Every structure is written in C-alpha cells, then in structure tokens.
C-alpha cells in the first residue's frame, strides 16, 4: 500500500511529537484528520454513521456547551472552547474510521508513538544526570524534569497518555519479549524521576490497574512486576533527594502544621486547596449552569473563601486561570447540568468498556481506559480539562477506546 494512502495513520502517529512541538501542530493534525475523514467518506460514498450512544452523548454535551455559551459571564472567553468542542467527537469518529479502514497497518501508529516516547525518555534521563536535556533546556524547577517541554512541567502527562497504549499493543502480540520489559522498567523509573507528584500518582494507578487486570500473564509474573514497581518507588523515595523532598519531606512538613487536624486539611492547606474551594463557592452560586468555560479566572473574584482559613495563618491565593482539578472545573464552569452530562458519558463509556474487555481481553483498550479513569480521580491536581494539550491526549485515547469498542 502506498505511503500517501496511509497518511491518516502517519498523522495519528505524530501526536506525541506534535504535542511536544506545540499544540498548534496537534490542532492542525486534528483538522487534517477530520478533513481526510470527510473526504474519504464522500469519495467512497460511505455515509457518515453517528449511530452510537457514545457519539450521541458527546454531541449532546456540545449542544449544551453552545447553550451554556449564551449565558456565560464572558462570551468571548468561552467562545472558542465551547464552539470548537465539536472537533473532539469528530476526531473520535475519524480515528475509528481510519483504524477500521487500515486495520492491517495500525502498528504504524504505535511504532511512531513508542519511538517518540523512547527518545523523550532518553532525553529525560539525560536531563536528570546532566542538568539539561539534549537541546540544552534546563528545567525551571530543579526538583522536576521538563525535557523537550523546556519551561513547561507537563512531560509526565504526555508519557502516561501515550506510553502504555503503545506498550500494550506490542506486549499483547509478544508478552515474552524481554526488550519490552526493559523498556517498561525504563519508563517506570523516569516517570518517578520527573517528580510530577500528581501525574506519578495517576501513572501509578494506571500501571497497577494494568498489571492486575491484564489477563495474558500468570499471577506469579503479575506479582513480580507489582513488587518491582513498589521496589522502584521505595528506592527512589530513599535514595533520590528530589523525590524524597517532594513525596516525604513536603508532606511531613505539612503534617507538622498545627492547623491540620483531619485528612481533608491536607487538601485545604495545599497550594491548590484555595482554587478548589473557590471553584466550589463559584459552583454554589451558579448551581445549574455554572459560569461558562474558561471563566473561573473571573468568577473566582466574586466569591470569598475566608471562612475556610479563619483560624489559620495560611496565606492563600484563590484566583488562577482554572481550578486545577477536572471535577471542580466542570462543576464551577458548567454547573450540575454540564457535570451530569459528562458523568453520564463516562459511566456509559465505562459500561461499554467493561463489557467489551471481558470478551476481547484487548490491552490497548484496557490501558487507554485506565488513563481516562486516572484523569477523573477526585482531589488530585490536574491541568485544565478544556486546554488543547489535555483535551487532545484525552480524546485521542477516547478515539482508541472507541475504535476497539467498534471492532469487537
């Protein structure tokens, strides 16, 4: 088959690299894939099928976002992310369409992903040992690694979003291949060394879930792999100063705070606690519809969280660009109606995933599903759900899930 006929697969394979280069590149890929999908459908005279509840639910969410835009407290701020959310259901359909059309060649995607990620992992090791990466970039925070992202500390998000589906694809084909285990250990170690605390927790959740639910290896091997991962974490906490500082000393210092009397106080008195509380107060004032996408930065100025800190000397800043937690972001900006729509979508998606995985035992489906669940864990900090970087990784994984759901 000619290379140009496989262009859609090459474009999907470029996602990790595109996100490293900048979200403008990844958005161009989104646009091209959707255009190629429509073009191929028209040329092949195949009607575009939307006969699936997953797509229906996403389209209902998009319609709600348009309605929500009308009542947003800042129409201009909300406009782009509300109107152009439609690209994500179209992207999901496009990925599924091309995975089905070129099903004998989808290894191209996972090969491109794994190569990009291995270079990224090597670059992170280089930065860890030499203080700068292969391009001479130094992390803006010495305790954490940034790699090719230079001053942006989000490389772990990229890794947990793309590595495991890539690994799963090849592991399913040959679970006895030693090189895959070596690559996986290298990934585990560098994930911890990035020192992105929230993403390490999410990545650990995905890894543990993957090992426990993976049906194609024996229980003894599962136990060994889990024990290996726990050992790597333990050794990192003991011997790597940066990791020890983030995971042990900082949390221990918080524990010495006289204002902490219950577990929830760790959240309230954290750096992101004031953002969570401010978003909750915004939600309480705008229960049904929220204030509109991307408006937390304005709405946070109209609420007070003083009551939560009256008996403390904690210095807080309640306003920022977003609440740094997906659940709080959706609640405050889209209200209980928007949150309920998203929750319905995720519950139905999980229902379909569980039923399909029981039959198919497909590891790509499992890994992408665990990634999606990890992004929805309450209280653990996140980026903004509606930014191009986060949404692209999220919905590309939904695209993988949808492709394998339609396959079986």
Description:
With 408 residues, the chain is an all-alpha fold. It folds into two domains: 52-100 and 264-408, no CATH class; 106-233, no CATH class. Helices cover 68% and strands 0% of the residues. It has 18 helices and no strands. Helix 8 (155-173) packs parallel to helix 18. The model has no long low-confidence stretch (mean pLDDT 92).
Helical stretch tally:
18
In percent, how helical is the residue content?
55-70%
The tally of structural domains comes to: 2
- How many strands in all? 0
Q: Class by helix and strand content? A: mainly alpha
Mean pLDDT: 92
CA-CA gap between termini? 25 Å
Q: Whole-number radius of gyration?
A: 22 Å
Highlighted features:
mainly alpha; 408 residues; 0% strand; single chain; 2 domains
Write the layout of secondary structure elements.
Blueprint: H1 7-13, H2 15-21, H3 23-43, H4 53-70, H5 75-83, H6 87-101, H7 107-130, H8 155-173, H9 178-193, H10 197-213, H11 219-239, H12 241-255, H13 263-268, H14 273-285, H15 296-299, H16 326-360, H17 363-374, H18 388-407
Helix pairs in contact: 1-7, 2-3, 3-6, 4-5, 4-16, 6-18, 7-8, 7-9, 8-9, 8-10, 8-17, 8-18, 9-11, 10-17, 11-12, 14-16, 17-18
